[in-house]
Design brief:
Elements lengths: L6 H8 L4 E2 L11 E3 L13 H6 L15 H12 L8 H14 L7 E3 L11 E5 L2 E5 L5 H17 L45 H12 L8 E4 L4 H23 L17 H31 L23 H7 L6 H15 L3 E6 L2 E6 L5 H12 L1
Parallel strand pairs: 6-7
Antiparallel strand pairs: 1-2, 2-3, 4-5, 7-8
């Protein structure tokens, strides 16, 4: 029998690639990239470069066009080492003659058709040094082939009834169009992606991260119930709002004494009015502080997922530095110094003014509204309560 010609198979081997451009779009010009042994990478990930580091022979493939399929059948058999006993003698001899040439093609990297990238190639823009680099992700069909071999072997073992593990689930992913051979001989290995269940969302984790990075919204209760209130209490709370709205307007608009410039906000009141004032403001302030305590409890339950102080430098482990000064102190009581109490009182006073409150006393409701001119006065009173 004459010696078979091996040049055609060696040429096909030398032009074969790990990453084919046609896996992205089967209609573009052929091309691809083949890795060398020097490009092996020692990292705990599954990729073409890390498999090279573990001395795996990653099968290469032709760059495209179905006319290469028959020629490449010999190359594929030589690399994958399939059973070829059923093939004719000439085919087996061609495979054996080609095997010694396989190792040498990985001595140097190889690429073809990469001078100009087709606009139909999917591209990602990655920021680098103030500019952007265009990257087209490619998949190595040979890596998919090796993964599929392992999946099949594992699933075969897990067929047994006493297996404690489920089979590895795979899906069907269309690639290569109507004729996958136009892309490559290994493209069908890319059509079996492994599927896994999506991680279950943890509502507590989501809430904790939202509080840490964004804080929380302070809500004022506009329906307030005073227990054991007297008839005088009802009259006093109404009188209090009227005093603020009437007398503080006079104070604010007085251009002769300039009381507001002197930080004089107080109107004239009586004991009953002051008592109801303290009760009302105390209820609002304590309600906000209770909201803050609830948020802190959520953070404490998710302590392990919060970034360390080394990762993000901040005034407290529980708060992100971008949060407002008031929110930081609300979430972490350790940050509540005198300056915070002043800022918090000012903040809460702004929320209280220009609001309408329904106050229930002995099953009767009194509706009050506070004018923005009372903001400074309320802030001063809140400082005493928060203290």
């Amino acid at each position: 029998m004459p010696e078979p010609q091996t040049d055609i198979f060696i040429n096909a081997l030398e032009e074969s690639v790990h990453f084919s451009l046609k896996t992205i779009n089967s209609n573009i010009e052929k091309g691809g990239i083949r890795l060398s042994k020097q490009q092996a990478l020692d990292l705990p990930y599954l990729s073409a470069r890390t498999l090279l580091n573990e001395d795996f022979l990653i099968p290469t493939d032709y760059q495209g066009d179905a006319k290469n399929a028959s020629t490449f059948k010999v190359v594929k058999a030589a690399m994958i080492d399939n059973e070829i006993n059923l093939e004719d003698a000439e085919f087996q001899q061609q495979v054996e003659q080609l095997k010694p040439s396989i190792s040498s093609i990985f001595n140097e990297p190889y690429q073809a058709g990469t001078e100009n990238i087709d606009i139909r190639m999917r591209q990602l823009l990655i920021p680098k040094n103030g500019k952007y680099v265009s990257v087209s992700p490619l998949t190595a069909a040979g890596v998919n082939y090796l993964v599929n071999q392992e999946v099949d072997a594992v699933n075969e073992l897990r067929k047994e009834k006493d297996s404690e593990f489920n089979r590895i689930q795979t899906a069907v992913f269309g690639i290569g169009g109507a004729n996958p051979q136009n892309v490559g001989s290994l493209v069908r290995s890319m059509q079996r992606p492994i599927t896994v269940d999506a991680p279950q969302a943890s509502e507590k984790v989501r809430q904790a991260l939202a509080i840490f990075y964004n804080g929380f919204t302070i809500r004022l209760s506009r329906k307030i119930k005073l227990l054991n209130g007297t008839k005088r209490a009802k009259e006093a709370i109404k009188e209090w709002s009227e005093i603020l709205n009437r007398q503080l307007v006079i104070t604010a608009t007085n251009t002769i004494q300039n009381w507001h410039d002197l930080e004089i906000f107080a109107p004239s009141t009586n004991r009953d009015v002051r008592d109801q004032e303290i009760i009302f403001l105390n209820i609002l302030a304590k309600d906000v502080l209770r909201q803050a305590t609830f948020q802190k409890n959520i953070l404490e339950e998710a302590e392990s997922i919060l970034p360390s102080m080394e990762e993000i430098e901040r005034p407290s482990f529980w708060v992100h530095p971008s949060l407002s000064f008031v929110l930081q102190g609300l979430i972490d009581p350790e940050l509540r110094d005198d300056n915070w109490r002043i800022k918090f009182s000012d903040y809460l006073a702004r929320k209280i003014t220009n609001e309408t409150f329904d106050i229930e006393i002995n099953n009767e409701t009194v509706t009050i509204s506070l004018d923005s001119n009372s903001e400074g006065y309320i802030a001063r009173r809140l400082r005493e309560i928060v203290r």
